[in-house]
Specification:
Blueprint (H helix, E strand, L loop, with lengths): L12 H15 L4 H5 L6 H8 L7 H11 L4 H13 L8 H9 L2 E5 L11 H11 L5 H13 L12 E7 L1 H4 L5 H16 L3 E6 L13 E6 L6 E6 L2 E5 L2 H17 L3 H16 L6
Length: 285
């Protein structure tokens, strides 16, 4: 018999919330399936909430309070859990934080920066400071930590999604960090690629026109239990698209962009060479 994993309620608000939910459910003598009966949600959804991996939707919290007779406790607390999960992130990014954890594949394109999932702490802090120059140091560190914490996704062996990142050569030809820190950033990407956690491809700076050159950050995600979606982000806003026709158009554009990029092996070689140049105080060629 497989021993279930204990929940550390001190780890975060969602974990505390999930542990309390499991305790209340078991105290009532109910299984996960019995608790979700009559709601619009499945057993796996509730199980992920109990483990602190997923937020509790307001309508499910209302259903749980009714079944467990908890006098609105979970309804009152679910907003606190939602805020804790997105701490350091914009409210419009909340849905994507959760979606990344459930994704089967993630494909990123960011024409001016290294994508957030691949950023080192130094790179993330530089980006946050550029976006919000009046933020206090503690606020910058919180936002940067939240961004880099997402990379833990690549350490979950049984849940790691297939991650593809297409990077323009521009992002290291126009560095935003001192040479040693840029070398660290490129080493980080190369190390993930060598460990088969990601597949990076490079768009050469002199390749000419290419698809998706007129958009900002573009993220395409597929799921085993839900339709695919596209996330688009600009300076102070983000939008999630799930219309099948639009998703298909972005899917075609991303495939054409991938065809324009260098192959993965050649791209990794270029990233490693650029990192070595920065370590030696040279501008990458």
């Amino acid at each position: 018999m497989v021993r279930r994993k204990d929940i550390d309620g001190s780890e975060s608000v969602p974990c505390f919330y999930g542990k309390e939910l499991r305790w209340k459910r078991e105290q009532a003598g109910l299984t996960l399936q019995q608790l979700v009966e009559g709601s619009f949600y499945g057993l796996s959804h509730l199980s992920e909430i109990e483990r602190g991996e997923r937020r509790m939707p307001a309508d499910l919290a209302e259903h749980v309070d009714k079944v467990l007779k908890t006098d609105g406790f979970f309804g009152r607390c679910c907003e606190d859990a939602r805020k804790a999960k997105r701490r350091g992130h914009a409210a419009y990014f909340e849905h994507i934080l959760e979606a990344e954890q459930r994704a089967k594949t993630i494909e990123d394109w960011c024409p001016t920066l290294i994508p957030g999932l691949l950023q080192t702490p130094a790179y993330a802090q530089a980006v946050v400071r550029a976006e919000y120059p009046l933020k206090l140091d503690a606020e910058v560190e919180e936002a940067a930590d939240a961004r880099t914490a997402r990379s833990a996704l690549f350490e979950k062996d049984h849940k790691t999604p297939m991650y593809w990142a297409i990077l323009p050569e521009y992002v290291w030809r126009c560095p935003i960090l001192p040479p040693a820190e840029m070398a660290d950033q490129l080493d980080h990407i190369a190390e993930l690629a060598r460990r088969r956690r990601i597949v990076p491809q490079i768009i050469p700076w002199n390749c000419g026109p290419y698809p998706l050159m007129m958009v900002g950050l573009t993220k395409i995600m597929t799921f085993s239990d839900a339709p695919p979606l596209v996330y688009l982000e600009s300076q102070h806003s983000g939008v999630t698209l799930d219309d099948p026709a639009l998703v298909e158009e972005y899917r075609k554009s991303y495939d054409l962009l991938r065809a324009t990029a260098l192959p993965p092996v050649a791209s990794l070689t270029m990233i490693e060479a650029a990192a070595e140049d920065y370590r030696n105080g040279k501008q990458p060629h």
